[in-house]
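Schema walk-through. Below, the input block comes first and the output block second. Nothing else is stored per chain. Lengths vary across the set, and this one has 60 residues.
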Amino acid sequence: MMNELLNFVMRATGYVFVWGMAIALVMLLLTPVLLGSINMLWAGVDAYGRFLSWRDKRRK
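--- output ---
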């Protein structure tokens, strides 16, 4: 009885560890991509804001 329980626990922790490591690796690889896209998004917002202020200055 105890041996089966221990076997199950060991296998479960192994699965959790392997999946956790795989997810951590994927997140580590995707971090620069996600940060880059967020950076590009903010650059677009900034450019749009500059365009609006430039247009308002030109109108006067």
